[in-house]
Design a protein that fits this description.
mainly alpha
Length: 82
């Protein structure tokens, strides 16, 4: 973005997300995403309140440059059986 241009809200969100990612460990980010989305979904869909947990405790984090699409798909398939 050049000097003098006004940042769009989405650009600001992206910048903030980048700051958070650099400040918070992967585990904490995943925990916040899962916890926040669980609260939202359980608020909108009360039948989910019956479940002891909405998300699996496992997660997978890697940069796109070091993981192939096939490895990601393989991981997802294995998680479906958990």
């Amino acid at each position: 973005m050049s000097e003098g241009e006004k940042a769009s809200p989405s650009w600001k969100v992206g910048e903030r997300l980048e700051q958070i990612i650099h400040q918070v460990a992967d585990e904490q980010i995943v925990k916040r995403i899962k916890g926040g989305s669980s609260n939202i979904l359980r608020g909108e869909l009360p039948e989910l309140l019956k479940l002891p947990s909405l998300w699996a405790h496992s997660y997978y984090v890697s940069t796109i440059g070091t993981v192939s699409k096939e490895n990601i798909e393989k991981y997802i398939e294995v998680q479906k059986g958990v």
